[in-house]
């Protein structure tokens, strides 16, 4: 299983460190699992137990911040 907030935080950290390849992969993965509402459940996958049916704000916050940094370092 994967924690959406943790994945978004990793993407953000990687972008801030200039490590683009894993950051891009993480962001692409998050975009693929993003809910139709634009939010994210806390976790996804077999055995997910961290808010698996509730959208949590932190995942969206870090996802958007990672997108910002992606644009910032690719500008």
Task: Describe the model.
With 75 residues, the chain is mainly alpha-helical. Helices cover 61% and strands 5% of the residues. A two-stranded antiparallel ribbon has the order 1-2. It starts with a strand and ends with a helix. The mean pLDDT is 95.
SSE inventory with pairings:
Elements: E1 2-3, H1 4-17, H2 20-33, E2 43-44, H3 57-74
Antiparallel strand pairs: 1-2
Helix pairs in contact: 1-2, 1-3, 2-3
Key attributes of the depicted protein:
single chain, 75 residues, mainly alpha, two-stranded antiparallel sheet, 3 helices, elongated
- The total strand number stands at 2
Task: Give the C-alpha Rg.
Answer: 12 Å
Low-pLDDT stretches are none
Distance from N terminus to C terminus (CA atoms, Å) equals: 33 Å
**SSE-based structural type:** mainly alpha
The rough form would be described as elongated
Global mean pLDDT: 95
Helix content: 55-70%
Largest sheet: 2 strands, antiparallel
Strand ordering within the main sheet: 1-2
**Number of H/I helices:** 3
Helix and strand string, N-terminal first? EHHEH
DSSP strand (E) fraction?
5-15%
């Amino acid at each position: 299983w994967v924690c959406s907030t943790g994945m978004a935080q990793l993407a953000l950290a990687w972008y801030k460190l200039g490590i683009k390849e894993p950051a891009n992969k993480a962001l692409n993965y998050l975009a693929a699992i993003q809910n139709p509402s634009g939010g994210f459940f806390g976790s996804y996958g077999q055995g997910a137990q961290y808010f698996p049916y509730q959208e949590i704000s932190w995942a969206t916050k870090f996802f958007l911040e990672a997108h910002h940094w992606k644009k910032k370092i690719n500008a």
